[in-house]
Amino acid sequence: MLDQIEGSRAVARTVAACRPQVIPAYPISPQTHIVEALAEMVAAGELAPARYVTAESEFGALSLAIGASAAGSRTYTATASQGLLFMAEALYNAAGLGLPIVMTVANRAIGAPINIWNDHSDAMSQRDSGWIQLYARDNQHAADLHVLAFRLAEQLSIPVMVCMDGFVLTHAVERVDVPEPSQVDAYLPAYAPRQVLDPAHPYSIGAMVGPEAFTEVKYLAHQHMAAAESALPVLAGELGTILGRDVPGLLAPYRMFGAETVVVVQGSAWGTLADTVDTVRASGSPVGALGLVAYRPFPLQAFRQALAHARRVVVVERAFSLGGGGIVSAELRAALPPGVDLHTAICGLGGRPVTTATLRTLIEQAEAGRLAALSFPDLNTGVIDRELARLREGGHHGPSAENVLRHLHHLTLEGSR
Amino acid sequence: MYSVRLHGRGGQGIVTTAELLAVAVFGEGGHAQAFPTFGSERTGAPVAAYCRIGSVPIRTHEPIDAPDALIVADATLFDQLDVLAGLRPDGLVIVDGTTCPTALAGRVGVGLVPASIIARRLIGRPVPGTALLGAFAARSGRVGLPALVAAIHDRFPAAVAKANAAAAREAYDQVLAEVAHA
Amino acid sequence: MTTVERTRFYQVGSWAAGNRLLDPAQASVQADPGRANAITSGHRACQGCGEALAARWVLDTALRVTGGNLVVVNATGCLEVFSTPYPESSWQVAWLHSLFGNAPAVAGGVAAALSAQGRDDVRVVAQAGDGGTVDIGMGCLSGMFERGDDVLFVCYDNGGYMNTGIQRSAATPAYARTATTPIAGTATGNRSGQGKDMARIAMAHRIPYVATATVADLRDLETKVRTAMGLRGARYLHVLVPCPLGWGTPSCDTLRIARLATQCGLFPVFEAVDGVVTAVTPIRHRADVREYLKAQGRYRHLFEPRPRTDLIEAIEAQARRTIDEFGLLAADQTEEARTP
Lengths: 417, 182, 340
Known about the structure:
The complex is a heterotrimer.
Chain A: E1 2-6, H1 7-17, E2 22-25, H2 32-43, E3 51-54, H3 58-70, E4 76-79, H4 81-86, H5 88-96, E5 102-107, H6 121-125, E6 132-135, H7 139-156, E7 160-165, E8 173-177, H8 181-187, E9 204-205, H9 214-243, E10 251-254, E11 261-266, H10 269-282, E12 287-292, E13 294-296, H11 300-306, E14 312-317, H12 328-332, E15 341-346, H13 356-367, E16 374-375, H14 381-392, H15 400-403
Parallel strand pairs in A: 2-3, 4-5, 5-7, 6-7, 11-12, 11-14, 14-15, 15-16
Antiparallel strand pairs in A: 1-8, 6-13, 10-12
Chain B: E1 2-9, H1 14-27, E2 31-36, E3 46-54, E4 69-72, H2 77-80, E5 92-96, E6 110-113, H3 115-122, H4 129-140, H5 145-155, H6 158-181
Parallel strand pairs in B: 1-4, 4-5, 5-6
Antiparallel strand pairs in B: 1-3, 2-3
Chain C: H1 50-65, E1 70-74, H2 78-83, E2 94-97, H3 103-116, E3 123-129, H4 130-135, H5 138-147, E4 152-157, H6 198-204, E5 209-214, H7 218-229, E6 235-240, H8 244-247, H9 254-263, E7 270-273, E8 276-280, H10 289-294, H11 309-326, H12 334-338
Parallel strand pairs in C: 1-2, 1-3, 3-4, 4-6, 5-6
Antiparallel strand pairs in C: 5-7, 7-8
């Protein structure tokens, strides 16, 4: 039903339409509105016979989900940032056990320094866990992706995290056509687990596997992930037909026809980028936008096709590997034909917004051949230069957040940030 | 596209006010996007919320740095922060109060409305949001009063909705009358 | 007038073997050749492992009470490792190993799922060693208790992280030698505190049933499992299970050592309902704390090269306190209580 609704609430209503049987919940900003909305629905009896379980930590929440899923119930939970890390052990466990849990990650930065605002470092830090990762470009997409997620997870026995930018999407009140239960029912069959804890057919799940078989188990998991790359467009297409709208599953292209410069983004910056592309195209530059929806499995084939005629690619990343560099761009490189310039632009960290101004500058610099391979386009270089100079002169190290305070006396904290 | 920034203090219902505006615009078939300051506000601390209004789907998710209008629920904020930052020179400012704040002296496009006083009388608490929206609707023409009232009824339980709708209507009528006499 | 003739039985069996004069309803599950045998032969526990013995009794009983409708969640540890040498498994019950610290939460999730599916007839038992219970599993366990998840949680307490090479846990008793509380220099082994009294922590949550037991009285353990499985909500069983390797005791001495632990007063055997102690197993034949300590290699440093009377007396004081707090000695034995 078409509504003007907070992103969190749209997700909660969509998840409810998928009829999970067990919902463990632990609060953390900025996902709390999702689990709160689900608590209201369960309390009001709208989700009977679902059980809502208040966990004592995120580790507890995902552990509850593991037990519930292993016992044959469709299971859902949500987290972000520190919470995702706190359940890291369980993430790998759930994936290794092939449990089709669906979890919303309201993308938020990871401390220290503690930061409650949006970037992608949380989910990216768990990229090797064996979970499928899907990134929503707006709240409509976020809602739709949850339906897709349950279907995909249960079909492939792989858990799925649906990532939506914390605050920017979770707390934005946007126009969303919330999927109806009848639409979900037409798409999502009842959960039929492949392997379940059943006294009638007892067997042991979770045994220790030694060197003689571990590699094979992991390789097979990798193959199942690869199967997701071909399953995603099919399942997304099927869902799109039922819902009557486009549901991007791997990539979300915008004005890619004839694009010589392509900008790749994940998450909510897609919309901002689309507006920027319109502006730049209007002045004659052949620019295109590519939203990365599925980060895991990494859609190498889809990228190869989409970027076949690009001359330069700018990957905007809202997370990076300290001491390494860009994460997505490093994986994207394999998809590029030789001779194509690849630029990594790290920005939008810790809630700093990705703006049309930043994107326009990136595009202009890339076209002019002035964009470095790795750049931090929204960096406050004044503060950085002063701090680096201080360190060179023998200033003590220690936590940078506290060190730069002396250089930040003129940074205003207006109510808008 | 038309963008509004709302200023207030934690506890005044600024976030809800922005949402009501978005829902009202949606109710008229328009496109809107409302979002709050993101953070862990405390009661009484300055907060801001935002609303974009348009006739085509709104895709961008960047902040609103250059609003077309401001709605200010607490005039003391002018002394505390640069409320007017980014506002276009002829931008509209709807302020709760009876005397024009010095920061707004000489500006065109200022709409003064005793929203808290109206609210205290009709709602029983000085929550100025819905009255401010009524004033905004009258002054800007960006959203109609019926849609505002519908959004209010959608959001609040019956008795509270009725009181808030009355506050919105009174502020709307008052501002409309002032504009007519101007 | 009828006279009662007392029959003298010439063959006096152990306390574990089935008594064929008993009402079958009172017979041990283990006396039934048709028992479930939840953990069957072929597992790779050490000879004399207290935990393997306890797990068999606990789960066979639970399977009997539930008619086979049981799901078991097992934390990482000796029990999980020696029972599932991939690709084999010695479990004949629906069984899930998740992680080290989350057995209570995983079990809670299983219970929630079964309830949501309308399968309240299927019950859940979670089991872990002392490390997985009092240390790394504590947060999840307290959460399970507080929520009242319908799970029986069983802690097999051998006083240390045995699977990883005998390291101390919060359940390791005072002055015991472990690999992380070694005897070197002036060190005297594990610190002198009392460790986490997990049974009383469980009682503080006011859950329906808490009980302690040991492998020295397996019928008692079985009875307590029956009682626990007859209840709903969060329940906790704390079972003392000597580890020959970690304790430095002969494999054949496991039951004897467990009995000494209860009879010298260091390990109280009791039941509690809704947070209040309701039954206590009194000490039958009071044993000397020294006899208990001397039997274990992990306490050798208390006797060699010279007796550490101060440390031994501290342990004796702990035993006296436990005896007093739980009333473990009958009134006519209290004279003895003053003279250990």
